[in-house]
Design goal:
Number of strands: 5
Structural class: alpha+beta
Distance between the termini: 51 Å
Helix content: 40-55%
Largest sheet: 5 strands, antiparallel
Strand content: 15-25%
Number of helices: 11
Oligomer: single chain
Radius of gyration: 20 Å
């Protein structure tokens, strides 16, 4: 492409191309994680009709607090210069369905090389689109975790579901999900914990026991390691936010 042609393409002419790519959500946010532009597939995923229904909002206006907060933390990493490339993750829709998606995020820089926002895309995966990724078997493992979330999870059972050895299971998870099977399990457990902290009055000790932890202190350490704050602080933060 000739340089003068590329330099004269308007950014708006490029981003609107994403309206014609099926199953791909595309978004642009400013440094405060406020949406500035999204494509039609993104709007459809949240049952929104017009771009004006979304511009000026954040993930906290679209998703439960415990999910939106994870997106916000991700944005902060990208604003520091981190690039997310081909990360496989589970993404929910407005109707609560869960899909395996592959996500890419990167910072937006100005002509003076200052980071002024973020942009990202995520698209659904299927066995047909990506035969090298065992989506069906990964889904069986996720189902097993959810069905046994209130008790200890067996890594040997995960390997059985994947039809492989434990060492192969570990390598597969590290390669595809950037986490070990048990790290992935803890993330799902913490999603349950976050939801319970903001939707119930359960004691921290009761919540720890319900998620298969032998004691409260172990649960608190795991929660703080992932969420960067304690369960009590998380609950208090949400209550303060909801009262504003």
């Amino acid at each position: 492409m000739e340089e003068h042609l590329f330099s004269n393409i308007k950014p708006s002419e490029l981003v609107f191309v994403f309206d014609f790519i099926p199953d791909v959500q595309f978004w642009i946010k400013d440094t405060q994680s406020v949406f500035q532009w999204v494509n039609k597939t993104f709007l459809d995923n949240y049952d929104l009709k017009e771009l004006s229904d979304l511009v000026g909002k954040t993930d906290f206006d679209l998703s439960p607090f415990y999910i939106a907060e994870q997106f916000a933390r991700d944005d902060q990493d990208v604003l520091l210069g981190k690039v997310v490339e081909n990360r496989i993750e589970l993404v929910s829709s407005l109707d609560q369905t869960i899909n395996w998606c592959i996500t890419n995020k990167r910072p937006i820089t100005s002509s003076s090389h200052q980071i002024i926002g973020t942009l990202g895309i995520t698209r659904k995966l299927s066995n047909q689109q990506n035969p090298e990724i065992p989506i069906a078997r990964l889904s069986e493992i996720v189902k097993y975790i959810h069905e046994n979330i209130h008790q200890p999870i067996s890594i040997a059972r995960m390997a059985d579901l994947m039809h492989c050895s434990i060492s192969t299971l570990e390598r597969t998870f590290k390669k595809l999900l950037q986490a070990s099977p048990m790290e992935f399990t803890r993330k799902i457990k913490m999603q349950y914990a976050c939801k319970a902290l903001i939707s119930t009055n359960s004691l921290i000790s009761e919540l720890a026991f319900s998620l298969g932890y032998a004691d409260e202190s172990h649960f608190i350490r795991e929660f703080k390691k992932l969420m960067k704050i304690t369960p009590f602080q998380y609950r208090k933060q949400y209550l303060n936010l909801s009262q504003k």
